[in-house]
Amino acid sequence: YDVWKIWCGLAAPQVGVLKQIVVIDVGEGPIVLINPEIIETSGEQTAKRMLKPAGQMGIVTRPNYVKVRALNEEMEEVELEGEGLLARAFCHEIDHLAGHMYVERVEDGLHDVEPPEEEVE
Fold first, then answer.
1. Following DSSP, what letter does each residue of 35-81 receive, concatenated?
2. Pairwise CA distance, residues 46 & 70, whole Å
3. Which end of the chain has fewer surrounding CB within 10 Å, N or C?
4. Which residues does the annotation mark as catalytic?
5. pTM for this structure?
């Protein structure tokens, strides 16, 4: 995937709302998780992650499969499973709820990079 264009989740604390809520959309519609917890993981995937807007990138390894337990918008308990990008998004957004940033997980340090030129239509 294009590290410059992906933005598939948001944790409430990122927008000043001090609640344990995340919204994730990897292209199949939004998933709302309230008080999510990771209950199972397996495998691993490694990818470059971009620190926006600072223009820095680092390598982060996360599980390739993740199962989470949370409440949905109707306050019903649900368990959801994700692989690949969805698993990565679960981990990344739930990290934000605990006050963690991906830079804490960078394996090779942060490297300065230049974003591509924006296309004007």
1. EEEEEEEES-EEEEEEETTTTEEEEEEE-SEEEEEEE-TTS-EEEEE
2. 26
3. C
4. 93
5. 0.77
